[in-house]
Amino acid sequence: LELRVELGDDQAVVSGDTRWQNFKKALMRVGLGVLSVGLFFADVLSDFGVCIELYRTGNPRWASLATFFLCGQYLIVYWRALVYLDTTFGRQSDEYRTFRAFGLPFGVLALDVLMLAEPFGLLAVLPLPEWLRTFVPAFKATRLVTETFAESLPQCLLQSMIFVVVMHRTSDVIGNNLF
């Protein structure tokens, strides 16, 4: 199976195997994109769920810490994007001023959406300025590191501490034979 593609005066022959390989790569990219988008939203929803549940159960101190960790990462990413825009365009540029005014929460959330569009190959086809198209992968890397160290690790430590405290209190109530 061959496909002839006209490229001006030249012709290129693309075999069926090449088309199949390209299709498999695209399918894999879409599958990983769906998985990453799903995991991202599951993470965000579970983080909000933890905050709400801690407030609901009368643990305002722990709920405040969980909320701080969740919101703190957005503040850090917002600040890093401002530093990038300042370095690239200057503080008097429209890009910097717009992001400074609307970047939290709208700009960071818009960058999150663009970050999630990247695995689908949509950044190449969306009508975006070139600087934004090149900024999104860097934003994604910054976002990943920030989320890991400013939110996920502290949340994990907080939830481990909650587990130890609850297990200790529970063992005092029902006896020491929990394990």
Proportion of helical residues: over 70%
Low-confidence stretches: 1-6
N to C succession of SSEs? EEHHHH
Strand content: 5-15%
What structural class do the secondary elements suggest? Answer: mainly alpha
Q: Total number of helical segments?
A: 4
For the largest beta sheet, what order do the strands appear in spatially? 1-2
Cα distance spanning the termini: 65 Å
Average pLDDT, all residues: 82
Basic shape:
flat
Specify Rg, calculated over alpha carbons.
23 Å
- What's the β-strand tally? 2
Question: Can you offer a commentary on this structure?
Answer:
Strands 1-2 form a two-stranded antiparallel sheet. The radius of gyration is 23 Å and the shape is flat. It has helices at residues 16-56, 60-89, 94-117, 130-174; strands spanning 2-7, 10-15. It has four helices and two strands; from the N terminus they run ββαααα. 78% of the residues lie in helices and 7% in strands. The protein is mostly helical and 179 residues long. Residues 1-6 have low confidence and may be disordered.
